[in-house]
């Protein structure tokens, strides 16, 4: 159920609110990865659990969000204006560029999860989280400032409803 992905029920929200909820979770899990990379004082169980949650989020949930943008948003927003088309191609390129830092984050997360006291593994997770954060933030902002407003302004309510159904189907 889509609503369970949110931090709380938002029955009034539109489809862009669902995208914004995803962005909030992306930022939250990047931050959790940074905390796990920075803190050497956490109990082993907390480190293991945190690493497992970060890895699960970026392996399972993030790809669904990227698929939402690539397959439900991009084809519908394309062709409206040069500015939107440019933002869409930047978005697409950035999604591809994120694959390497994401793989590094997952590898570092798995390693620290297996050896929670390993300082080198912790340092690698911090470096991976910082790199991913630096690449993700301008990406999230591009979507939030150009593309999400365009979904609200340029796509008919019926089309926004279609997008919402596709998001739900991807998670069913
Ligand atoms: Fe994206
Ligand atoms: Fe996004």
The rough form would be described as: elongated
Could you list the spans in which at least 5 consecutive residues all have pLDDT below 50? 1-5
The average pLDDT is 94
The main sheet comes to: none
Helical residues, percent: over 70%
Total beta strands: 0
Ligand names:
fe (ii) ion
Kindly report how far apart the N and C termini lie: 7 Å
Query: Over all CA atoms, what is the radius of gyration?
Result: 17 Å
How many helix segments? 6
Give keywords.
binds fe (ii) ion; 172 residues; 6 helices; mainly alpha; disordered N terminus
How would you sum up this structure, described in words?
The protein is mostly helical and 172 residues long. Helix content is 82%, strand content 0%. It has helices at 15-38, 44-77, 82-97, 99-114, 119-154, 157-171. It is elongated, with a radius of gyration of 17 Å. The N and C termini lie close together (7 Å).
